[in-house]
């Protein structure tokens, strides 16, 4: 989820809210598992997940950015498409209820998960990319004043597609983390709303990669409380802690998101004047 949130930060800074991130993560999880299952190579599975996340996100980008359709509507359609597509393909390949599926997981480096290493490196690298490079300045301008950005000689559509490409790759990696690291398997709708939580974390982190990363750590801590209370033997309903990350995300949107200054042109379609 934190990996997806870092990628989502980049595209939101450029003015695009990728509601379809949930579908991109789900496609990444499924196709990452599928490639790993047939090739017996989890690294090829990871590449398959990135490709699936990119393709799903760029379909969103074609309709929402190139054609200028409503970003929320298109993103919702992408999520429904991904849910139906992965569920249908999964049942066709592995049966109506799915067999006891197991694929090889990504190997750890000296006991350290490689995707966690990527996460810890990506937050400061993304901050530098957004805040300290010419591309980052142009992308932020596209999210604030797209007309002025176009007048300065930049293509707003190209900048937003580039930002969305980055977000799609990270969404695919986030999906692969679920199927190739956490479970070594796949289940229908296994993302279970984590993409929407990632969007909430971008608001919580005020569109700054470092803060977004810390917000994601907070959500992860809230989700891990179930194991702490189970270890203590406390008689607390399990479902309460399963719902905890989503409750925290909702509270973030209600209280922290209020009054937060988002990019001025966030979720607003842009059409080049002729």
Helix-and-strand structural type: mainly alpha
Shape: globular
> What pattern of helices and strands is seen along the backbone?
HHHHHHHHHHHH
Number of DSSP helical runs: 12
Task: Give unreliable regions as ranges.
Answer: none
Strand content: under 5%
The strand count comes to 0
Notes on the protein architecture:
With 274 residues, the protein is mostly helical. 72% of the residues lie in helices and 0% in strands. The model has no long low-confidence stretch (mean pLDDT 86).
Secondary-structure topology with pairs:
Blueprint: H1 2-13, H2 21-39, H3 42-66, H4 71-94, H5 114-132, H6 134-144, H7 146-151, H8 156-182, H9 194-204, H10 209-232, H11 238-242, H12 244-256
Give a brief rundown of this model.
By secondary structure, this protein is mainly alpha-helical. It has helices at residues 2-13, 21-39, 42-66, 71-94, 114-132, 134-144, 146-151, 156-182, 194-204, 209-232, 238-242, 244-256. The termini are far apart.
Tag the structure with descriptive keywords.
274 residues, mainly alpha, 12 helices
């Amino acid at each position: 989820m934190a990996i997806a949130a870092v990628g989502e930060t980049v595209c939101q800074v450029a003015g695009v809210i990728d509601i379809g991130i949930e579908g991109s993560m789900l496609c990444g999880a499924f196709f990452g598992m599928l490639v790993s299952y047939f090739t017996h190579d989890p690294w090829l599975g990871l590449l398959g997940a990135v490709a699936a996340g990119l393709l799903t996100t760029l379909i969103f980008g074609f309709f929402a950015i190139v054609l200028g359709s409503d970003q929320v509507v298109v993103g919702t359609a992408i999520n429904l498409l991904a849910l139906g597509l992965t569920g249908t393909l999964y049942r066709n390949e592995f049966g109506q209820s799915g067999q006891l599926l197991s694929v090889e997981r990504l190997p750890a480096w000296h006991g350290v998960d490689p995707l966690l290493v990527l996460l810890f490196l990506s937050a400061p690298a993304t901050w530098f990319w957004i805040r300290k490079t010419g591309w980052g300045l142009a992308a932020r301008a596209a999210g604030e004043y797209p007309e002025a950005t176009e007048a300065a000689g930049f293509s707003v559509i190209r900048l937003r597609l580039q930002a969305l490409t980055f977000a799609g790759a990270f969404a695919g990696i986030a999906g692969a983390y679920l199927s190739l690291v956490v479970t070594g398997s796949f289940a229908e709708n296994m993302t279970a709303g984590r993409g929407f939580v990632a969007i909430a974390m971008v608001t919580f982190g005020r569109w700054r990669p470092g803060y977004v990363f810390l917000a994601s750590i907070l959500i992860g801590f809230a989700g891990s409380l179930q194991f702490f209370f189970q270890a203590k033997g406390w008689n607390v309903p399990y479902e309460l802690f399963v719902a905890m990350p989503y409750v925290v995300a909702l509270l973030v949107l209600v209280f922290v998101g209020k009054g937060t200054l988002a990019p001025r042109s966030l979720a607003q379609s842009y059409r080049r004047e002729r």
